[in-house]
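USER:
I would value a second opinion on how I read folds in token form. Give me a protein, with the fold worked out from its sequence. Write it directly below this note and I will take it from there.

ASSISTANT:
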Amino acid sequence: MFPSPFQRHSTPPDPRFLRFLWLMIALGSLLAFASLLSAQDQPPQSDNGNQKSTEAPPAAGGPQNDVGPYAIPKKKEEPPPPPPEKPKKVEGMPDYSIHVTAPLVEVPVLVTTKDGQFIPGLKQDNFRLYEDGVEQKITSFGITEAPITAALLVEYAATNYMFMIDALRASYTFASMLKKNDWVAVVSYDMRPYMLVDFTQDKQAVMGAIDQLRIPGFSETNLFDALYDTLDRLDRLDGHKYIILVSTGFDSFSKLTLDQILKKVKTTHDVTIYAVSIGWMAREYCETHGCTGYSHGMGIPISEMDYLQADNEMQTFARLTGGRYYQPRFAGSYPEVFHDIVGDIRNQYNLAYRPTNPQLDGTYRKLKVDVIGPDGKPLKVKDQKGKDVKYQVVAREGYTAKRTVE
């Protein structure tokens, strides 16, 4: 029989027994506390299972008391927008589109009397423009009295003393008529072209470039090569440009042929050439004294027929580009010649249009410009005395529609 735990002993109880007793008491307390929490978390059960809780659910969208997180209400899902309606297919219409950009063609036009006097006051309605015989709609019209951009291309070779004198006389005369806003480059040539001064507005620089023409280097006059090189230089500049060609027109042995330089002239649509022939007095002497086989410089025999061909080539360069050809016979004629040239450049009508033929196929298109009166008939010009005055319309003969690069 075990002794009673409450029986008084003379000796104290075992410590291990006390630790076991306290451990059992703590474990029981924990089990009781857990049971109480589990009972509180369970929802109230109805007696018959059919009754519902009368407690209202918490409202969404905000805190229900002074504590707790703020609940953002869920955004209502909106229906997606309807897809765009597909365009209705037109019967016979292909499923692809075509975009064509027609180039803008500029045509400077000079209208002067037979004496070279500019005829002012013309309007857009006074002009009719044709490409390959088809009338074009003029989209831009204006009269220019603006600064010029020109290259002075001078033949200066060891050929003939009179040729060199005339070349210098013509060059200085042109330079003396420049204005402060003009852009001018000076290029001389014999066997090859030489850039004496690049485009500048400094009139003194232009005069200084002409001063360099004193001792010629070679007797060859390769006009075709020099003209081609100058056209290439001008092609890099925007706007309309001019070449003042001062030359005998004779070509010694250029690498290019006449057909090649003519093709280059035709494909350059924004350059106008004014050609001034030099050496008339020397050629006149040969005509009167019979200079058949006359040597053009050192060992280059040419005849009067060669000069006639040179004149024809210079006229062709000017005509194809809408310029004019001059053949002054006396030293006193140069101021008048260059007065006309500068007047033509500063006072001319500028027409522009987009061709009805938009194909960029590299073909040459012929141009024609007519001037008409209010009645649709050819324009009549009268002087102050009421007499009819003959006039001329000078414009380029055509252009080449540059082929697109694919």
About this structure: Residues 4-10, 46-54, 56-73, 95-100 have pLDDT under 50 and may be disordered. The longest strand covers residues 105-113. DSSP finds eight helices and 16 strands in the chain.
